Amino acid sequence: MVKFFGVRELVQLLRTVGVEEFLSNLIRYIREDFLRWPKFEKSPRLASHSANGVIELMPTSDGELYSFKYVNGHPVNTQFRKLTVTAFGVLADVGSGYPLLLSEMTISTALRTAATSALAAQSLARRESRVMALIGLGAQAEFQALAFKAAMGIRKLRVFDVDPAAVAKFGINLSGSGIEVITTDSVASAVKGADIVTTATAAKRNAIILTNDMIAPGVHINAIGGDCPGKTELECGLLERGRIFVEYLPQSRVEGEIQQLSADSGITELWEVLAGKRSGRVSAADVTIFDSVGFAIEDFSLLRYLNDLTATMSLHQQIDLVPSLADPKDLFGLVRAAGLDLPRSGKVG
Ligand SMILES: NC(=O)c1ccc[n+]([C@@H]2O[C@H](COP(=O)([O-])OP(=O)(O)OC[C@H]3O[C@@H](n4cnc5c(N)ncnc54)[C@H](O)[C@@H]3O)[C@@H](O)[C@H]2O)c1
């Protein structure tokens, strides 16, 4: 049997563990895996682009466990009451090739993206950061807010979205969370006075959400919405000014904000900072930019955490994704045991 977390099981798990506690633990799992970076099999994700969006496969392995995620990104979807991003993923045992766990990964992607953002900010943002601007209040937004509260002590958010309904939803969802939400009427007004700026907008184009002149010295930018060729959020001049950090450079060169820069521009992978191999923020006046597109190891960490949780909690289901056989060569026996009538003679059909 294979362990299964559907949307219902995952929501139940979050209720039991607590969202902030889950995010804090997940940050620890991602950090552990980023510190083992050279051990992982890594490749840019396989992307199938179409007019409305992209469908991607994201595999990785540490030699003992293997994972992959199916994920889409279709910014038009919300017009049709569908999510921009949906996903599911598998964790498997490398020794046998058997799947161990199948999970929904729509909520899980929001969790692991927020956890990775917060992990990056712990190394890159100024320690005394207390106010975050959050631009784009869609599906990812509350998870980002709670991860930054848990990891960075962010208790004041200055927010903006072009959709007033998204702003209202966000305020309701975070009421009672201990986070003060200040709504603003523009991006420029939202970022004023913020120590950290998160952009989580969705549009299939080179949007310019943040311009260089909006950003004060010392700000950390957590840019998660630009994650496909031709889909970016930051003005090029801002990239040229900032110190830029990415997940996996070969993938980010194609998909990240840095697709706007020349291939020889100096970029640091986040794991190198975590491992103490390269510096992150050097001075309080640095503008640091985490140019996040999402990488397979983050999904691996999430699935590894879920799998570990099943040792002490039984909120998942067991599903018969793979046959269980007394004689592994007698696969057809399953079909016969179900009472299937076989054609007795000659031709079929
Ligand atoms: N880096 C990663 O790992 C990662 C992971 C998940 C999602 N994403 C990306 O993050 C983005 C947000 O994802 P989501 O699931 O929240 O999408 P969503 O469609 O649910 O929300 C996007 C929000 O951005 C708002 N928006 C669009 N243009 C805007 C503008 N110019 N100014 C202000 N607000 C604007 C929309 O009104 C909407 O509320 C998407 O682009 C998605 O592809 C990245």
Description:
With 349 residues, this protein is an alpha/beta fold. Helices cover 32% and strands 23% of the residues. The protein is built from eleven helices and 17 strands. The protein has helices at 7-17, 19-35, 106-124, 141-152, 164-174, 187-191, 236-241, 249-255, 270-274, 296-309, 332-337; strands at 2-5, 46-49, 54-61, 65-73, 87-93, 99-104, 131-135, 156-160, 180-183, 196-199, 206-210, 220-223, 232-234, 243-246, 268-269, 288-291, 317-319. The chain has an eight-stranded parallel β-sheet. A hairpin with a 5-residue loop joins strand 5 and strand 6. The longest helix has 19 residues, at 106-124. The chain is globular, with a radius of gyration of 22 Å. The two termini are 35 Å apart.
Short note summarizing the structure:
Helices cover 32% and strands 23% of the residues. It is an alpha/beta fold. The site of nicotinamide-adenine-dinucleotide (NAD) has 30 residues, from α3 and β11.
